[in-house]
Specification:
Shape: globular
Number of strands: 4
Mean pLDDT: 84
Strand order of the largest sheet: 2-1-3-4
Order of helices and strands: EEHEEHH
Structural class: alpha+beta
Strand content: 25-35%
Radius of gyration: 18 Å
């Protein structure tokens, strides 16, 4: 197994405006996560768990410090990461099956293969 971290947090922090000033909700996290390791972020609502997931996925890159995936700094959304949000939204013009299959239609590397094999549902 590789000794290089799969995911690495390097002094990652996050601030939000609160009562007219910036409030630090995530204090400098430095954490290497090796392949095969299991890590959980737990805490009350509003402590930054979803914000950390958004930074890992690249939806909102880390504003303080950096997160690296396989040695590469995450600066944009990653093609191989999916995220299920807390409040899922079903697209009303699609039936349940088509809503579930949507990621296969729009995310690489599945996008091309899915359209070729299934056409339009």
């Amino acid at each position: 197994m590789s000794r290089q971290p799969l995911l690495e947090f390097n002094n990652v922090g996050l601030e939000y405006p609160f009562d007219g000033k910036m409030r630090r909700i995530i204090q400098e996290i430095s954490l290497p996560i090796k392949p095969g390791e299991f890590v959980s972020f737990v805490g009350p609502s509003g402590c930054g768990k979803t914000s950390i997931l958004r930074m890992i996925s690249g939806l909102n890159p880390a504003p303080i410090g950096a997160i690296y995936y396989r040695g590469n700094k995450i600066t944009k959304p990653l093609n191989n990461v999916g995220m299920a949000f807390q409040n899922p939204v079903m697209l009303p013009w699609r039936n349940t099956l088509n809503n579930v299959l949507l990621p296969l239609e729009i995310v690489q590397p599945y996008k091309g293969d899915f359209k070729q094999k299934n056409g339009s549902l």
